[in-house]
Design goal:
The complex is a heterodimer of chains A (about 300) and B (about 375). Chain A is mostly helical. Helix content of chain A is about 70%, strand content about 0%. Chain A has 13 helices and two strands.
Chain lengths: ~300, ~375
Amino acid sequence: MTADQWIALIAALVGGALRVGVPYLFVSLGECLTEKSGRINLGLEGVLVLSAVAAFGGAYVSGSALVGVLCASLAGAALSALHALLCSLPRVNDVATGIALMLFGMGLAFYLGKPLIQPQAPQIVALPLGDWSESPAIRAALEVNALLPLGLALSVAIWWALGSTRFGLVVRMAGDSADAARALGYSVRRIRLWSTMGGGAIAGLGGASLTLFYPGSWSEGVSSGQGLIAVALVIFARWSPLRCITAAALFGGAGAVGPALQSVGFGWGYHLFNTVPYLLTLLILIATCRPGALAAGSPGELSSNSR
Amino acid sequence: MAPAMRQAFVDVGLPVLAVFASLLLFGIVVSFGGVNPLELWFLLFRGAFGDWFSWQNTLQRAAPLMLTALCVALPARAGLVVIGGEGALVLGGLACAALPLALPLPGGVVGLALVCGVGAMAGGLWIALVGALREYRGINETISSLLLAYVAIGLFKHWVEGPLRDPTSLNKPSTPALAESLRIGGIAGSDVHWGLVFGVVACLLFSVALRSTVWGFSTRVVGGNTKAAQLVGLAASRLVLLACALGGACAGLAGAIEVAAVHTSANASLIVGYGYAGILVSFIARHNPVAVIPVAILLGGFGAAGSLLQRRLGLPDASVLLLQGIAFVLILASEALRDADWRAIWRRILQPSGPRPSSTPLGDRTV
């Protein structure tokens, strides 16, 4: 490969990490908040797809990307509220509910999204961070989603709120010991409802990034497991909102390997390279999980802790 | 009512109620799009069970659903929630299509048994990997199985569009078609292929095995309480692995049968979500292999009616997915009614001013 190709490849990788990583960041932040309250939300995959279609539909109908982003967040919160309500029923398990909401969110999104496959919607503005460079590849790579700064700010805000506020303490207590929270007179059900809804609203921003920035259109394949990978990302980030940023960047980069190689004319094994994020997730799980032990930093009440 | 009778009534009644409620809700949702719900329900029934043509279509779809549902039901009996049947199915189909390219196979029953067997083996190993990750590394099987499903689909596409591609398949990359002698035919000249028999037999066999063999009993003990199982000396890990492998083998067999009976080669038509619909089938059937049979036929029917809904009412093809999603949510919600004390509820409705029983402590009573 020539030097230009190397630059193009690295630019495509970095650009891909920035573009693909943003949905990962929002979904993992949402999942992190939900799990801190002691509940796992596997339904975030459904949330992501539904909010993606809500964002696209909202932006298409109103002509404003901002309205689309708000729609996405609301749709995410609404579907997550359903998750929280179902989970608070007796005998209902949050993993099974997550699977149900994954299918329900996708079904609803595909049903509502049929008329939206062709049209174009106004997009979220791009921040041209690469204007200093002469190279068009670098300039294209550093066109950054305007929601990215919001995501970074949210990570810091959630980290601060969980660590240093009364609200954060209550959420963490509900996640570590529901009995302790109950003994102090808090309603665990209500704490988890709000955390799950808040997590859904944040994850909805990830859905908006999918349809309103990259890939920038609605199709039924718009999300392929990002919502689910988020669950593993949170384990990798050891339930820290700050570490979610690095985790999201890493996974964004992994997801960009296939398209980046294709962009420099290396087409072999395109589908194999697309499996890299899933394999990476598995490897991380293998490295971090121990049978019979809680993962480091894991809230005590999580049902994903086996045995 | 006698407790056993009440139990049976609840076991059958609640899912039936949930399915009816989801049809009702589906009708309401669709009516917002200007479709008459009565017409919708009528067409849904006609497209699924209205005439012999629809029955053939329904049964053709029910066959793989039974097998992919077993991929959820068997691990569930050992206490695992495995949702990656789609991965086992596509790998089963791929292995079935690839074997004749690697080895010269005899035609007829022997060759057919070989291609189906290799499909089942591929699926079984894939889901056994999920069980092994759970048993030896403590990795949540729900997450890992779904991640592995995405990996399997990637592998499938790589092989079908790359090394195994039939160069003459231009628009739709496929492997070379199976030889005529390796295909599964229809039963008595119909479109319903022998895969349906495989599905029904597998469901019945596993039902008997779970109920009345030592293996079945031990597996159910492990699923009920792993610690207790280990205390009485059961090899819990081995039983979990076996349940996963058998479930995966069923899903792999489903893929092999789809290739040998319907598509004749491995191509993208195999990835239509039978693995995911199988999760719903198993949950409605409460992971009971016998109940899987009628539920698979019902959901196969909904799938078969999908194209009729599309043609006659202009509904998107995803409307069946929506119905499935609603049904899944309501099935889980119906679990909450299982313990309900109906007499107390009835009394409360009759005397709204009466003293209310204190609410149960905030619920973490999960299944």
